[in-house]
Automatic annotation (TrEMBL):
Domain Tripartite ATP-independent periplasmic transporters DctQ component span(s) in chain numbering: 22-153
Family: Belongs to the TRAP transporter small permease family.
Compartments in which it is found: Cell inner membrane
Keywords recorded for this protein, A-Z: Cell inner membrane, Cell membrane, Membrane, Transmembrane, Transmembrane helix, Transport
Name the UniProt record assigns to this protein: TRAP transporter small permease protein
InterPro entries found in the cross-reference section: DctQ, TRAP_DctQ
Organism: Marinobacter psychrophilus
Membrane-spanning intervals of the chain: 12-34, 46-63, 84-106, 126-145
Keyword Transmembrane helix listed: yes
Pfam families documented for this protein: DctQ
Any GO CC annotation of this UniProt entry: plasma membrane
GO aspect biological process, one term: C4-dicarboxylate transport
Function, as annotated: Part of the tripartite ATP-independent periplasmic (TRAP) transport system.
Assembly mode: The complex comprises the extracytoplasmic solute receptor protein and the two transmembrane proteins.
Length: 164
């Protein structure tokens, strides 16, 4: 039995709801297409949006649980002071990447809002889709920081099952 706490953060719920929405939209589209030879126009646009949301929300959950891909071999064989430095370097590199995503995503969302750009499929304002990019990048930064604080305080990493 796993001793990990349940993943009940807002990002986990957001990812779950988005994945359920993708499944329902796709299933409904398949059923309608095979029964009527017509297709829903909104399915691709919403599915792509929800897929991006699932990806970023899942990345935030993984960051909080310290389950992102990294070179654990180096971490486990270093003395404590060097391990701390590696943790900080990992965090700094991750924050740098997601801060760049948040910055340029914010600029992009603002431009989409100013230009009143509309989505090609449904004609909805594009900024509604794009605003989630910087928001979720900031959520990942927060979760990475929480994970770093836990690691620096010496809290053990959650039980991770590695499959080979």
């Amino acid at each position: 039995m796993s001793t990990r706490p349940p993943k009940c953060w807002p990002e986990a719920w957001l990812a779950s709801v988005a994945l359920i929405a993708i499944c329902l939209i796709s299933l409904g589209n398949v059923i309608v297409r095979y029964t009527t030879n017509a297709s829903f126009a909104f399915t691709e646009e919403f599915s792509v949006f929800f897929l991006v949301l699932v990806t970023f929300a899942g990345a935030a959950v993984a960051a909080r649980n310290n389950q992102h891909i990294r070179i654990e071999l180096i971490e486990h064989h270093l003395p404590a002071p060097f391990r701390t430095a590696v943790y900080i370097v990992q965090w700094a590199m991750g924050v740098t990447v997601f801060a760049i995503i948040a910055w340029y995503g914010s600029v992009f969302a603002w431009q989409e809002y100013q230009w009143e750009s509309l989505s090609p499929g449904l004609g909805l304002p594009n900024w509604i889709y794009v605003i989630w990019l910087p928001l979720m990048a900031l959520a990942i930064i927060v979760r990475m920081t929480q994970s770093l604080i836990d690691r620096l305080r010496g809290k053990a990493d959650p039980e991770i099952i590695h499959e080979s």
